[in-house]
Amino acid sequence: MSAELIAAISNVANTKELLAQSVESTKDPSTRENSIICGATITESQGTTESLRNKRRTHTSNEGMYLLRLLRNLAIEKAFQEKMRDYNLLKGALRIMEALNDRISDLRRDYEEEDRAMWWSQQATLTVRATAQYICNFVTGNFNNQELLWNTVVSEPLSTYLRCGIDRMTVGALCATVYNCIANSEERMTHLTREGHELLDVMLRTTAIDKRVATDEAFDWVYFCVNKILVTGNFVEAYKHLGDSDTTDSQVVLMKMVEAIVHKTKEDQTYPIDHPTCRFLVEKLNEISRKSLTESITKEEKGEDDSVDSVFNDEEFVSSNDLEMIFVLLQLFGTITVSNNDQTSPFSELLFDCGIVDTISDYKAEREHIAKGGKVSDSNRGGLSFGFKRDLVNILANLSFKNKKVQDRARELDLFPVLLASCRLDDKNPYIKEWSILSLRNLMEDNLQNQEAISQIKLQGPAPSAELDELGLKAEIENGKIKLTPVEM
């Protein structure tokens, strides 16, 4: 490191003075009016004195920016991190963040009316970004600096900075700062997932601020934080603290992150999910799906609709967050139950112990309740309810592969009739047929009791079909074959 850089950081008085000038300049309303782009023409009416004042302010502003960038680059070295902590430079950096953060949004609204406001906003954004990057470097690999920052700003100031979403690079740097603080500290991890859940909530929400960005630094660092939460066994507490009863946006994002983590590790099947987390997820699926299906039963009994499927397309009865959560969970379970060899998936036993097969049976029971009312409609084949049933059958097919405990439990719960009833053509959603056939195959493999139970099931008649009703036809069984006949008027 050159002598000039060492001198720059050692000259603490000059450093503090420049930082203070940068902060004070943001508080002066005239700064916004008098900040100019280098090379712009000063009007005669402003006069020589005003011109000199503007140049002096611009020079000071540039010095502050250069200093921030210098500090940011030096902060990757531990020796400089120690000096910066001794000189309390973190306090100056946080003052810059605080002074600029609230004003950038207001200035952006003046873009069309005032070019100088746009320039000032851009410069302020660059300043905040450099400051956030400096803070991130300041705590990287330095436990003492992490403690200092965590005790100083968590969780309210950091939450405020993230909530403003100044730009994605700044948000990414702040999320990286949080990750550095929790990566090797059980205490800070516990705080983030419990008392500091507001910070985690804001971090998760930042991943959806700009839907045009599929992935960026902010997303990546939040992903790393969620992975660390998962592998350290803090997922359940984090999920609970992000919402009480109704499923929140942050909980959905959290689950999507977990599903992405699981999908990434599916090749070697080293899924970072422990038994308590797995049991919690199964219970959550059961809770949300039963709530949705119970609402559909209530709706049907009131005569508001003749299709259990339709409730999954009616946000008045089922929230979009509940629907997203159901299908993310089903995708996750479908992934971890797939076997890459001729052996049972290592998570099949775990999911079985957590009651996933009973959850499938609960759904069957709800459908039978509707059927007894004589108002089951098949018209909404593309509905989310039908996809829900298909994915459950998918999971059952995976679970029952070379697993006698699952095979026997399916027989005890009388799941065979609903699987057989699902083995029919459906152009709009064919996967229910294929997964049902595979489930029956796996359930009967090397299991004589299941083979006998299925052989004793009697054909009772064709299932109701709204499509045939619309065509004025009905299905009948004649000599073991299906026959279509016109409906008598």
UniProtKB/TrEMBL annotation:
<keyword id="KW-0132">Cell division</keyword>
<dbReference type="InterPro" id="IPR016024">
    <property type="entry name" value="ARM-type_fold"/>
</dbReference>
<dbReference type="InterPro" id="IPR019156">
    <property type="entry name" value="Ataxin-10_domain"/>
</dbReference>
<keyword id="KW-0175">Coiled coil</keyword>
<dbReference type="InterPro" id="IPR051374">
    <property type="entry name" value="Ataxin-10/CTR86_families"/>
</dbReference>
<protein>
    <recommendedName>
        <fullName>Ataxin-10 domain-containing protein</fullName>
    </recommendedName>
</protein>
<dbReference type="InterPro" id="IPR011989">
    <property type="entry name" value="ARM-like"/>
</dbReference>
<feature type="coiled-coil region">
    <location>
        <begin position="90"/>
        <end position="117"/>
    </location>
</feature>
<dbReference type="GO" id="GO:0051301">
    <property type="term" value="P:cell division"/>
</dbReference>
<dbReference type="Pfam" id="PF09759">
    <property type="entry name" value="Atx10homo_assoc"/>
</dbReference>
<feature type="domain" description="Ataxin-10">
    <location>
        <begin position="388"/>
        <end position="484"/>
    </location>
</feature>
<keyword id="KW-0131">Cell cycle</keyword>
<dbReference type="GO" id="GO:0005829">
    <property type="term" value="C:cytosol"/>
</dbReference>
